[in-house]
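Bug #77: duplicate submission created two jobs. Keeping one. Sequence:
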Amino acid sequence: MEPNIYSQLESSLEIELMEDFKVMTTYRETITILDKKGLDHAIIYIGYDGLTKIADFEAEIINPLSGKTLEKLKLKDLKDYSLTSSGSVFDDNRVKYFHLQSGHFPIQLSYSYTTQREGNFSLPRWRPQFYSNQLVKKAQLKVKYPEKIGLKYLEKFLDQNPGKVSEGGKSSLQWNLSDLIREEDSDLDSLPMVKLAPNQFSMEGYASDMNSWEGLGRWIALVNRGRDELPTEAKTLVSQMTAGLSTKEEKIAVLYDYLQENYRYVSIQLGIGGLQPMAASDTYRLKYGDCKALSMLMLSLLKEAGVNSNYTLVEAGRDAKDIEVGFPSNQFNHVILQVPDERDTLWLECTSSVLTPGFLGDFTMNRHVLVVNGEDGSLHKTPAYKSSKFNTITNESTVTLLDNGMATISQSKSLEGFAAQFYMQVENGYEEKDVKKLIYMDLGLTGASILDYKLRTEDTLQIPQAYLTHNTRIQNYYQSTSKRIIIYPKYQKIDISDIPNGYLAWVENMRFDLPGEMAAESGFEPLEVVHDSYDYHRSVVVSGTEMKVQRKVNFHLAEGLDEKQRKDLLKEVDKLDNQPIFLQR
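Kept job's structure:
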């Protein structure tokens, strides 16, 4: 079935690298809107900052049936927004923006503009497709560059080689595509794309090469040089805090705790295109910084304590894909620290106020990173945490059955690793009412009323731990007749985001105080399931006025499962859990 087409697009992107390392980029687009549902495709979005200037902007709105120009736009007609986030204090990223509005169709938006960028550290990537229900009639990418600077490219989902022309010490590459339609619900990363990077590059006088990761690391080291110096006051403080500590781990824990307690994260997108960290002495004085500044300060504190660490670039994000390891280039958006060790390398997330030292969480785990050792750089990989010791849930519950189907639950929760990560944030930033909402969500029951609770966490090196106890009254927990009681044991609710590393050891031990002596009727048979992605065990024992339920699930998700397959596995476990227990009076 052919998709509905709400707009048509003809576009071109021309990039020219200059010998002085400037980059001239010219965009041209003609968008024909065929239906009101295509109006969201008619957007002009031009980013700029202190290193990027906009020139030669032209735009017009046209009636394509008559060819008549309805309106011409100048740059001043576009809205101008700051891209500063709520956590930013230094950020010069801005955007020029226009969104076409019309009640008559077809209508056409045609525009072009040129930007001049100081420095060629990062080059635009070409994505000729973006919107579903849009026909890309023509799309062209043309790149010009001096051969002494050089250029490399990485193609995705393209079945053509670019045309290349070389003359007078300059070369150009060109790609042409036509008649493209993006399927609905298709992944953006499955569409044609070209990534570009220079071989030789420079930003504000700092030059290196991207022929290898070593070259890129060399540039970062050059930009960072001299920024790890601490004032005398800070050096004295480090000496006092680490006095009497003999091990590297002890020093890391004390200094990391000091960083978390005394410094706050803000986004700073200034300084060589937002790439140079604030000097450690300034961060120490101001008591705030971004990932670069806080990592540089922590590096400096550790250095003063005699602990070597390395400034490390990473592509962060829970859903972020790993970098293209065979394409050395700027593919990073975050900075962490690596503390090398012959036995077990330690990683530090310096922007978090709650994580334990040595535990990165799912924000930067299991991906390639560029470790800068002071002179150059090399690729390493962050921990994948492929073990259930990094993700455990143990719930010990006593359930007292009351009259009319009501019950009270006294529960102790013990969580480690990823399971504890969220509770550490809760302890540090949530109000009582929000903590109660979380407990209600875990219980997954209606008619619950929390009588009291207590939450505490521990900063155990590399594996965070959290402990939660609560007493809760619940309505409609069980069903009762004159001859029997029917109980559906209720376990903690989880979803696929609770198993980011593919492993989870989850134990539910429940003791039921029954309203009188009961006999087992059904639902007491031991249940054992061995699966490629999990092992399941449940046992039920009743004795007089007491019943014990033990349920264990060990997840070890098979590699290569997509999100739907993972969700289906949780549904299987949920079905195993949702088995009633019948007791005779």
